[in-house]
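Hey team,

Filing this mostly as a record. A colleague (T.K.) asked me to run one chain through the structure pipeline before their review meeting, and I want the input and output archived in the tracker in case anyone asks later how it was produced. No errors, nothing strange. Just documentation.

Input sequence:
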Amino acid sequence: MELIETFIKGKRPDQERCEDGFFFSPDFAAVIDGCTTRSGLEYGGKSPGRLAMETVKDALSKMPRDISCLDALKMLDKAIADFYEAEGMLCSAEKNPALRIACYVAIYSDERHEAWCLGDCGALVGDTFYATHKKVDILHEEYRSYLIRSMLLDGASEEELLCRQGKIRKLCDSVSCLQKKFQNSDDSEYGYSVLDGFLRILPSSLVVVSVPKGESIALATDGYMEVFPSLEQTEKRHAEILAEDPLCYRIHKSVKGVEEGNCSFDDRTYLRIMT
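Output structure:
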């Protein structure tokens, strides 16, 4: 397995607040997307998403080479549960998902020649991109697009709405505030899987892809709306989309747009290897 190129960019000017990460070793390659929270919680000066990313990144370095997909996800999830236990908050985190640290991953196993994509992270293998898209996110994205379009019909301009995203975010709270209830729940319609110490693996949240030897594979977080076989192509398309639709409600609908002072709507990470 050969590392070809990597790139990571936080959406905010302060890169220390970036909640994405990547990992590479002779055995595994991975991208990690820490889940952003609106709660304002911090643990040791770190956001829950940043802490989850760092916890899982450290656990990746300890995984045995021949581990299976399900056992790997359980091991990474246990690293987060161990954090709660060390902090004396395991019971409170179990009862209240809003207290949890959480992240998604896309991992390539060199031993098994497989890509494992959990949640919002994906893998481009050959010409096919593999990822899942949570139904709760689709609901949020559609509702947000609906709100923005209604404001435009009322006479607002896209430029004005770029400066009013705090208001749009509050109007979306009726949808977004319910999401945590479905995190690792057994709800058949809106439940979804995430590494948060209480992992429940749902088929709709996990993709396992066999990767032929000698294939190029790109792993990416969902800060990229489209993923291509090279970083240059992927970055070029990313810039084109944001230039045309910075509110992220038309070309590729998102739960958030490019907020004032930020360079993108989300942190983004790209990693390409040759298997």
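Quick notes for T.K.: The chain has a mean pLDDT of 95. The first helix runs from residue 48 to 60.
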